[in-house]
Design goal:
InterPro entries: BCSC_C (IPR008410). The chain is mainly beta. The chain has 1 helix and 4 strands, in the order βαβββ.
Length: 53
Amino acid sequence: MPHTGSWRLEQRPVRESVLSYTGLCDLYTGKTWGQVSKRAGLRPKVGRRSARA
């Protein structure tokens, strides 16, 4: 049976704490920290194609 497939990349925010999700900015220095992203590598998405003629 023939198969079809595709690949996708994902980047999602880490939601384990408020700091990691929203981040903070130091008003005195202007430096920011937090806003952590989680990247998922290439994920295969495999499905079956119908073999109708």
